[in-house]
Amino acid sequence: MPLLTLTFPPTAESLPSLRDAVEQWSQSQALPRSTLDVVHLLLEEVVGNVIRYACREPPTPFEVQLDRHDGRLLIEIRDAGPAFDPCSVPPPDLECRLEDRPIGGLGIYLIRCLCDEMIYQRVADRNCLRLVKLLPNPAEE
Amino acid sequence: MNMQVERLGDFCAVLLTGRLEPPHVEALEQQLASVYDLGCKWLLFDLSGLDYLGSLGLRVFVAAAKRAKLLEGEARFCGVHGLVKQVFDLTRLSEQVPLFDNRFEAMKGFPPTESPVTH
Question: pTM surpassing 0.90?
Answer without folding.
Answer: yes
